[in-house]
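Quick one: structure for this chain?
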Amino acid sequence: MCRGLTRRLDSVTMLPLFVLSMLHKITAARGYVYGRTATHWRWYSGEVAMKPCIKCGQTKPIKMFYKHPEMGDGHLNKCIECCKDDANEHRAANLEKVREYERIRGRTPRRKEKVRNYKRTARLKHPERFREYQKTARLKHPEKYKANQAVGNAIRSGRLVRGQCEVCGTTEHVHGHHDDYSKPLDVRWLCIEHHCDVHRKMTA
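Got it. Here's what it folds into:
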């Protein structure tokens, strides 16, 4: 097969979607890129695949587009930067609706598990970032850091016993919430979900 060859496969349009997806993966690994129409395959032979963004009109490398399994070439037709701009505009125009959606999504078991897994892996993958974040937080909120340290030390020494969430009664992942950081051992026991609700109301 010669360089830059465009091949027409009329039978491709008759194939089921999952077969087209498999063909795309196989041919992409061998240097082929599926074209805009359902009957064209392009071979770039090592060249960087390019495509135009339907919003900004700029032609960019294929890696500048989010992957999407249902698109012909496996990528969205809108570049990453334009996707981010649209997402920011939508959030700004519908801030309350977006916040409510995020609150509901954040309470689902699947989302909670994903967040926990992300925190575990992120801390292991980027320990220097985590240490820098902790350092910045200590400098920004010294009274909060001291109060949290006092609670942790008191629990370890037995002077303070971790209770159940005062809202839902669960004993899993319960935090000590401070209404007044100047009273480090005066805490309300709240689970993660209700602890976050309290802080959201405080910053609203």
